[in-house]
């Protein structure tokens, strides 16, 4: 499911045991090592995120080209590109990556609606498993482990990072 220019699409998220990724437009835990992991993983890539996620951060993240996905045709923000659908965001990412090194990817950084919209296009998921079960109003979308396989796992002490790759069966998309 690479983009038309052959770029990989990767979902990057921190997910609690109960699937929570957010509460009241914030992350319900503060693990600096996971923030550092997100930065290291997404640095130098095109980062797609939803408007609420972007507004929660409050600024474009340095070292990444940010595309903000919003349904509001009037919304603007300095330092980001804007798209109104996941396909528009991926097309824009392709345009931005066209003349870039081959290892540059499209990273999806949340929130829940953006992860869900991007899931059919994703090649990989890099999920930080947070060993907590906090209350929250935002959840990572469920996915079938028949269509994904765990390819790597690293214990980072306060959390684990798990890499999932899409499984392609003969004749299946």
Characteristics:
21% helix, eight-stranded mixed beta sheet, Dihydrofolate Reductase, subunit A, 10 strands, two-stranded antiparallel sheet, alpha/beta, 173 residues
Percentage beta strand: 25-35%
Write out the strand line-up for the largest beta sheet, numbering strands in chain order: 5-4-3-6-1-7-10-9
CATH architecture: 3-Layer(aba) Sandwich
> How many DSSP helices?
4
Give the secondary structure arrangement, pairings included:
Layout: E1 9-16, E2 20-22, H1 32-42, E3 46-50, H2 51-57, E4 65-69, E5 81-83, H3 86-97, E6 106-108, H4 112-118, E7 124-130, E8 138-139, E9 148-155, E10 160-166
Question: Mind explaining what this structure looks like?
Answer:
The protein is α/β, with parallel strands linked by helices and 173 residues long. It has a single domain (9-166), classed as Dihydrofolate Reductase, subunit A (3-Layer(aba) Sandwich). 21% of the residues lie in helices and 29% in strands. It is built from four helices and ten strands, in the order ββαβαββαβαββββ. The protein has helices at 32-42, 51-57, 86-97, 112-118, and strands at 9-16, 20-22, 46-50, 65-69, 81-83, 106-108, 124-130, 138-139, 148-155, 160-166. It has an eight-stranded mixed β-sheet with strand order 5-4-3-6-1-7-10-9, sandwiched between helices. Strands 2-8 form a two-stranded antiparallel sheet.
